[in-house]
Design a protein that fits this description.
- With about 160 residues, this protein is an alpha+beta fold.
- About 40% of the residues lie in helices and about 20% in strands.
- The protein contains 4 helices and 4 strands, in the order αβββαααβ.
- The chain has helices at about 5-15, 65-80, 85-100, 125-140; strands spanning about 30-35, 40-50, 55-65, 145-150.
- A 4-stranded mixed β-sheet has the order 3-2-1-4, with helices on one face.
- Strand 2 (about 40-50) and strand 3 form a beta hairpin.
- Helix 1 crosses helix 2, helix 2 (about 65-80) packs parallel to helix 4 and helix 3 (about 85-100) packs antiparallel against helix 4.
- The longest helix has 19 residues, at about 125-140.
- The chain is globular, with a radius of gyration of 15 Å.
- Bound molecules: zinc ion (ZN).
- Zinc ion (ZN) binds near residues 39, 64, 65, 68 and 129.
Length: about 160
């Protein structure tokens, strides 16, 4: 393992141990629950979206493996303060990064530190752990209050 991979792993473990935006909001405009039964990951996501479509606040709770927690922590950090459209674009880019055959990691993207999760691509069983938080985010953005599972056909 090279130094950069070790560094990435440390960041992931750090987020898993003390996740950012972990907890519950007093009130929220959008929420969704996500499940990854293959690994036993659960995420409960809450957001406040302002009238001009800005994600002003976001929090999550739940339980799961280090990858799912770290991914959710990183996601909440990255999308807080962004517009709904920006969050949707990031979801697409992140999903492509982990699921597309061609090496999207070599291309320029706007994912910033979310790129540290690209190593998960080498472990197909864990890709759903990393994308669960994003599918849950997407569900919350589509409709208020829904539950999704990675084992639904379209996830
Ligand atoms: Zn997992």
């Amino acid at each position: 393992m090279n130094a950069i991979n070790e560094l990435y792993q440390e960041i992931i473990i750090g987020h898993a141990r003390s996740p950012k935006n972990f907890g519950k909001l007093l009130a929220c405009t959008h929420f969704a629950k996500g499940d990854n039964p293959l690994c036993g990951d659960h995420v409960d996501l809450q957001m406040n979206i302002s009238s001009d479509d800005v994600i002003t606040d976001i929090a999550f709770c739940g339980d799961g493996c280090a990858i799912s927690k770290a991914s959710c922590s990183l996601m909440t950090e990255c999308i807080k303060g962004r517009t709904v459209n920006e969050a949707k674009c990031l979801f697409k880019e992140f999903h492509n990064l982990l699921t597309k055959e061609d090496d999207a990691s070599k291309e320029e993207n706007s994912l910033g530190k979310l790129n540290i999760l690209v190593g998960v691509k080498n472990f197909p069983m864990r890709v759903k752990c990393a994308t669960l938080s994003w599918h849950t985010l997407n569900a919350a953005l589509q409709k208020e209050g829904v539950a999704i599972s990675t084992e639904n056909s379209d996830v």
